[in-house]
């Protein structure tokens, strides 16, 4: 796995590089601002870019804008965004173009090395990894949507784990239920959210992004 890191904090940037190289991952370049990041991605064509949300010069949304531009230039590039705070607007801006190969984690998650590496590999494999704290805030802010109010507490739990990017088996293990029970809950979620029968992966993404889109409309 070839990785480019975009992070303006030199200590964190080098710490990430050391951590990933210790796991036999190939960090091909690091960058301290958005322009350097895009140049490194264009030059090295990595499999994954780790991107800080807030980068110079204004430390607002340069990282997200660079990530969106990088995906425009290189549609197959996987991107894992790191942020110090839960910033729903930035998460929805990045995910608006589709969730395949995208992740959004809080920086504190990096210290939980196993979880961080699991998310990185999931994103690199084309999956989605959204920080549980982001999911929690999205769920708490979207309960006025009548379609979402149809969900039972257990269905909300399942959808929250879907939003983190977990598959059925991982959800079953986390909730200590059977795979069959998870499959039943997911079918019920699709029905209650008025998602017609179609490709199940597309419906999973649609169910999660419906929360994100509702948050964006309210901001």
Largest sheet: 6 strands, parallel
Oligomer: single chain
Low-confidence stretches: none
Biggest sheet, spatial arrangement of strands? 2-1-3-4-5-6
Q: What integer value in Å does the Rg equal?
A: 17 Å
Given the structure, what is the number of helices? 11
Outline type:
elongated
Helix-strand pattern: EHEHEHEHEHEHHHHHH
Beta-strand segment tally: 6
Q: Give the class from helix and strand content and strand pairing.
A: alpha/beta
End-to-end Cα distance, whole Å, is 37 Å
The amount of helix comes to: 55-70%
Estimated share of beta-strand residues? 5-15%
Mean pLDDT across the residues is 83
Q: What does the model show?
A:
This protein is an alpha/beta fold. Helix content is 56%, strand content 14%. It contains 11 helices and 6 strands. It has helices at residues 10-22, 34-44, 62-73, 88-95, 113-124, 132-141, 146-149, 153-164, 168-175, 179-192, 200-218; strands spanning 2-6, 26-31, 48-52, 78-83, 102-106, 128-130. The protein has a 6-stranded parallel sheet, sandwiched between helices. The mean pLDDT is 83.
